[in-house]
Each structure stands twice: as C-alpha cells, then as structure tokens.
Design goal:
By secondary structure, this protein is of the alpha/beta class. It folds into 2 domains: 7-123, 3-Layer(aba) Sandwich (Rossmann fold), CATH 3.40.50; 127-286 and 317-342, Dihydrodipicolinate Reductase, domain 2, CATH 3.30.360. The protein contains 9 helices and 15 strands. The chain has helices at 18-27, 40-47, 59-66, 80-88, 104-117, 131-141, 180-196, 296-310, 318-337, and strands at 7-12, 30-36, 54-56, 70-73, 93-96, 121-123, 148-155, 199-207, 218-225, 230-236, 251-257, 260-264, 270-274, 281-282, 341-342. The strands form 2 sheets. It has a 9-stranded mixed β-sheet with strand order 14-13-12-11-7-10-9-8-15. Strands 3-2-1-4-5-6 form a 6-stranded parallel β-sheet, with helices on both faces. Helix 7 crosses helix 9. The radius of gyration is 20 Å and the shape is globular.
Amino acid sequence: MSADRPLRIAAVGTGYFSRFHYDAWRRLDVSVVGICSLSHQDAQANADRFPGCRAFEDFEDMLDQVHPDLVDIIVPPHDHVRFISAAAKRGIAIICQKPFTPSLEDAERAAAIAHEAGVPLVVHENFRFQPWHLKIRALIDKGALGDPYQISFRMRPGDGRGPEAYLNRQPYFQKMERFLIHETAIHLIDVFRYLFGEITSVTAELARLNPQIAGEDAGLVLFGFANGARGLFDGNRLSDHVAKDRRLTIGDMLVEGTKGTIRLNGDGDLFFREFGDNEERRIDNDWAKRGFAGDSVFRLQQHIVNCLTTGDRIPNTAEDYLANLRIEDAVYRSHDIGARVKLPLEPQKSAGIEA
C-alpha cells in the first residue's frame, strides 16, 4: 500500500457501533468508497456522508466494484468468517469488529485464511487505545509503579437489568449464550496483557443474574501472569459505579506495584498514591471527549492506517488476538470444571503503542 494516496476504505455494517467507525474514518486521511448493509437505506444514509461513496446491499459486489485497499467489517460475529474469506481471496486488508467470530475454532480458521492469503487481518480491539490505558502503560514503562504486581478491574456499567436490558443499543446481547466474558471481558483480557504481559492461568466463577438473557452477566476471574503478578476481573452488568457516563470506562481499575498504586475512576481520571502515603495526586492526562471512550476508535483506526502505509507492525492481528480468545476459552472451562486452568506460555507479540 502506498503513502502517495489515501487508502481506499470499504465497510460493511450499519448497526449501533458503526457510527464510531464512520466518525473516525471521516476524520482520517482516507477515502471511503463503499458502504454495505442489508438495509440499502441505511447504507445510502452513511455513504452520503462521504464524497463519492457508493451504497451496496451485497458485500462481494461492493468489493468487486470499488476495489478497496482495506475493508472494515462492523457486523455481528456469525458473518465474520464469510466476509473475511471474501476479502482475503481478493487480497484486501481487513479490520474486523469484536467479538471476533462466534468461537475460538472459527477465529483460528479466519486467522489461517488471512495468513494463507498474505493479507493483514486486524481485530478492532479499541480498549487498549483508550487514553487512560495508554497513560498507565507509559507510567509502568517509566518505572512509576516500581515492580507491578497486581491489577484489578471492577466492571459496573449498570445496563443489564430487567427484560429491556440492552434492547435500545445492541439487542443481540440478550441471545448470546456466552456474554459477559466473550462480549465484554475480552476487552479487559487484552488490556491486562497489554499492561502486565502474558497470562498463564485463570480461575473463574460466572453467574447469570438477569433471567431474561441467555448468557452470563456477572463473574469473578483471577488471572496469573508469567511474571508472577496477579489480576482480578470483577464483573457485574446489573450494578453501576460512580461516573457521569457509565459507558466511558465501564468500571474502575487499580494497578499496584512496589512504589505505589494507580487508580482509574469512572470519568477517565487517573490518580497516583505512593506506597505509605494517604494522599493521592491526580495524573495529568489530557484526552478528547469525543467519539467512543476517549476517542479510542479513532486512535485505533489512525494507528492501523499509519501501519499499513508505513509497513510498521500492527497490534492485534488475528494471529496475535488468538491468545486473548484462548484465555477466554480457559475462563469458561475453569467455570465449567470448578478449577484453575493453566495456559501454555507463549511470547508476547503485541506491538507497542505510543501514549
């Protein structure tokens, strides 16, 4: 791909989260040339926001007519492998929304398809691009925590109560048989690995609190890291937390080390307390209050465009992301058998991201 002209982008999907993708593409130096949806009206409405962009109802027809450099797949998991296969056989680079495919087996197949075709396949995992996570990583790298030894996240979006849970935003959530971990905690698995390195064991206990949905909506997961650190994911979609927008961080985080503790609150603010001190100080961390969660979708898509045009390594390729999905699979197995599950230790492949 050449840096001499803007990348040609095509996208499929016009559901709830697609608005954040399209907003980011509008602000980047790219050319959006095609948008596909089962609803031609929705495809046309989104295409009208980009000069010269065309609307389609058939995905392969769009690829053959507009010849994009990169396709953005923004649809539920059941169509991922089919769309990835169609783009890969045409030599088109791919970004794919998460949850990435319906299962680990499908994800492995999708990664293999892209690898055999020699095309980049990137999972749209935007949480590590949220500015508070980038700042925490920068502070760890600078030694502000000393030796990190524990990370914990309390997920409390408060959006999972009663028969109307999730219907106003992503109604398919109600029918997902694997929900809390597969749909949401997967973000934190990626963030935990980004901040603390490889996960080598999990111990999990999951629960379904809302009888109106198919999958689990609460759970405790203990992670063991290769460096001896520990992590705790404590999720409950029925409870809330203190925040002006409970969708911003979806919870609170503590990152602890020998020199002190970093705390993330629900408003995206970071605080540091030195060990032995009773006072916190606020950490300077300016970020844009636009787009999704600190403009993390824009940051991710900008990073991918830069990597594709410069040849730099891309974070969260499908092959890299399989590590997250194997951890997810181990979480469910741990719950099923009521015991700790060990994971094979593999070298971390994630590319660095500048804060």
